[in-house]
């Protein structure tokens, strides 16, 4: 049983137009703690009819919300930020219970998620227009920015809080209204955010959250309903492609934060200890379940053995266990299917000749645990080179030259995050510019924060979240041609 200071944050109904609602047909779905398999809550499971209702309410609410002054919108978001931080511990407990990550990581995610509220509260006041020269003196070209309209947001289970705030905060700051759908595994964090939205003064219908296990039905409604003007999604590339196709029918705007296959390159001249610390942070955060987790370690031949040895020593210090356990540094994967998927990739590598320098099997802690793993003697024909692992497995590839490292790094359809470690300033520029990625960590393993633009190129998606650029995805430019100026 979850002990919360505010038990009312744990909700089992969806939130539509300021009301807590059940499914029309009474359907429910269980939320389980991956650490223990225990049922944390049984939540209402809605579908397309209720989604359509939520979208219609969001359209109605948009009439007033888009006219709220930027200071009013900023104040609501700032209050929401304050409330999230005031309830950080309860929200973190809810997150760990449904997702499994260690409580300290959940505390970090809540603060990270809240930072988008704070940031976009500030940015709400900076939705500047523009006046630009016209081709003749009798005209002026005036640009204004207006909210794009009703936004549908579909988010994954790996960051049940922050992936929502990163979308909802700029949308609401811009004057849009939102209908959200969290992952079926992790609806509780999403619903808790709605409790605090209401307390912060977010008007009814501006923020709606539809929970349901029929993601195709809910997503189908969101992508086909002409009221929805924008779909923002974080999740797998295959699902992102389906949503983009579905959105084509009504020509919706889309933002897609999709899969990654991040290279983590260590050159011979790198600070080895810093590189190992960065590798641990970027690889094993959230048990390897983030789209910016380093997927392939590429290590230059002169430093290879020393890097493997130090990384293996660091991994041996991990304390794997229940996210609520004292001193636990790595929790379970999200479900047993994820463990099977990760294990199949490790087996594929071992069958093709890889050597295990650490881990390499399911843990006896429970169905959802996998040992932190390091693979050496790996080659490019193995699945771990080309596919997103989404688990605590580090394959360490060897390279000789800078050109080879860049070519290996770019040899993927993905282009979200990349990392490299070197002390050569010329190489910093050459490699930084040569990597075909939206985000590059240079001598740094942790690249996400609310002030930086997060997003990918190639099949990792489109659009940017966070930073001064993150608002653009929720705004339309309108050009007004002012004539009759010269007498
Ligand atoms: N870029 C990232 O951050 C993420 C990448 N992934 C990658 O995807 C793999 C599979 O994870 P998975 O959870 O299945 O990711 P999905 O892409 O399937 O799920 C992400 C979100 O999309 C929803 N969804 C799934 N199918 C549809 C659909 N047809 N229409 C509308 N919404 C849909 C899910 O809902 P529901 O939960 O109800 O099915 C969830 O809310 C991972 O192993 C990882 O490689 C996964 C999560 C995040
Ligand atoms: O995996 C994701 O989709 C989110 C990445 C977490 C982060 O913001 O760093």
UniProtKB/TrEMBL annotation:
Coiled coil: none
BP-aspect Gene Ontology terms: gamma-aminobutyric acid catabolic process
InterPro entries per the UniProt record, alphabetical: Ald_DH/histidinol_DH (IPR016161), Ald_DH_C (IPR016163), Ald_DH_CS_CYS (IPR016160), Ald_DH_CS_GLU (IPR029510), Ald_DH_N (IPR016162), Aldehyde_DH_dom (IPR015590), Aldehyde_DH_Superfamily (IPR050740), Succ_semiAld_DH (IPR010102)
Active site location: 257
GO molecular function per UniProt: glutarate-semialdehyde dehydrogenase (NADP+) activity; succinate-semialdehyde dehydrogenase (NAD+) activity; succinate-semialdehyde dehydrogenase (NADP+) activity
Start and end residues of each Aldehyde dehydrogenase domain: 20-479
Keyword Oxidoreductase in record: yes
Keywords attached to this entry: Oxidoreductase
Enzyme Commission number(s) of this protein: 1.2.1.16, 1.2.1.20, 1.2.1.79
Enzyme class: oxidoreductase
Superkingdom classification of source: Bacteria
NCBIfam families: SSADH (TIGR01780)
Similarity comment text for this entry: Belongs to the aldehyde dehydrogenase family.
Protein name: Succinate-semialdehyde dehydrogenase/glutarate-semialdehyde dehydrogenase
């Amino acid at each position: 049983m979850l002990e919360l200071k505010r038990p009312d944050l744990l909700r089992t109904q969806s939130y539509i137009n300021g009301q807590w609602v059940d499914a029309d047909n009474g359907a429910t779905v269980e939320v389980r703690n991956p650490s223990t398999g225990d049922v944390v809550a049984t939540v209402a499971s809605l579908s397309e009819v209720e989604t359509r209702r939520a979208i219609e309410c969001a359209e109605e609410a948009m009439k007033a919300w888009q006219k709220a002054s930027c200071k009013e919108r900023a104040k609501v978001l700032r209050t929401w930020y304050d409330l999230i931080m005031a309830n950080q511990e309860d929200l973190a407990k809810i997150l760990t219970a449904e997702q499994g990550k260690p409580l300290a990581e959940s505390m970090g995610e809540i603060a990270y998620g809240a930072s988008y509220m704070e940031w976009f509260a500030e940015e709400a006041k900076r939705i500047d227009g523009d006046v630009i020269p016209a081709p003749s003196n009798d005209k002026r070209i005036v640009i204004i920015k207006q909210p794009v309209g009703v936004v549908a947001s579909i988010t994954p289970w790996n960051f049940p809080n922050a992936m929502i705030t990163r979308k909802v905060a700029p949308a609401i700051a811009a004057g849009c209204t939102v209908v959200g759908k969290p992952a079926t595994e992790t609806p509780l964090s999403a619903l808790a955010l709605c409790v605090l939205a209401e307390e912060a003064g977010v008007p009814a219908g501006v923020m709606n959250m539809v929970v349901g296990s029929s993601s195709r039905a809910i997503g189908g409604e969101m992508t086909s309903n002409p009221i929805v003007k924008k779909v923002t999604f974080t999740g797998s590339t295959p699902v992102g492609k389906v949503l983009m196709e579905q959105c084509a029918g009504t020509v919706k705007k889309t933002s897609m934060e999709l899969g990654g296959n991040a290279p983590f390159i260590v050159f011979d001249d790198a600070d080895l200890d810093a590189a190992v610390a960065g590798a641990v942070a970027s690889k094993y955060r959230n048990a390897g379940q983030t789209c910016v987790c380093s997927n392939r370690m590429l290590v230059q031949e002169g430093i290879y053995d020393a890097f493997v040895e130090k990384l293996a020593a660091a991994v041996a210090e991990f304390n794997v266990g229940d996210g609520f356990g004292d001193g636990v540094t790595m929790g379970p994967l999200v479900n047993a299917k994820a463990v099977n998927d990760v294990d199949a990739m490790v087996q594929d590598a071992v069958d093709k000749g890889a050597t295990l320098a650490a881990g390499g099997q399911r843990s006896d802690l429970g169905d959802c645990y996998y040992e932190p793993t390091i693979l050496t003697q790996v080659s490019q024909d193995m699945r771990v080179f080309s596919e997103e692992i989404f688990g605590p497995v580090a394959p360490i590839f060897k390279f000789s030259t800078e050109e080879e490292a860049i070519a290996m790094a770019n040899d993927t359809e993905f282009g979200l995050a990349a990392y490299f470690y070197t002390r050569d300033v010329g190489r910093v520029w050459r490699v930084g510019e040569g990597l075909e990625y939206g985000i590059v960590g240079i001598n740094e393993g942790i690249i996400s924060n609310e002030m930086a633009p997060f997003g990918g190129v190639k099949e990792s998606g489109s659009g940017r979240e966070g930073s001064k650029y993150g608002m653009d995805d929720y705004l339309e430019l309108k050009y007004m041609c002012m004539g009759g100026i010269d007498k």
